[in-house]
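Predict structure. Chain length: 129.
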Amino acid sequence: MDFSDAFRIVNLAVGALMIVGAAFHLHWTISAIVTSVYIIIFGLATVLLEFQIPPQVARYASFLFSFVGRGVFYIFVGSLLFADGTMDKIIGTLVGAIGIVYVVLEFVPSIEPPQNMREADGGWGAEQV
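Prediction complete.
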């Protein structure tokens, strides 16, 4: 089954949620500002990966090209977003829940990764020495 378009929409939505969540996460402390900047960068990277995959990303962030890797990444960002405010908790929970679904999808053999995840996937041990 090919759900590439559905995965693209979900990934774009998660990237947008990361950016919006970073705005809600922003408080005027150094740690919140630094965390928000990182979450915005992660959100922009998530959105941009749906349109173009730079070779450096495929080499140094290859975990983003598997369901488990992307799922754990979304769970990580969701946990960063899960802070004091109500919107922080809602957005953090949504991003984390999508991450859990992605991890589970790795173990469903009838669902293949979307095309943009297969293009950069060289498999285990595919690094060039």
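Summary: The first helix runs from residue 4 to 25.
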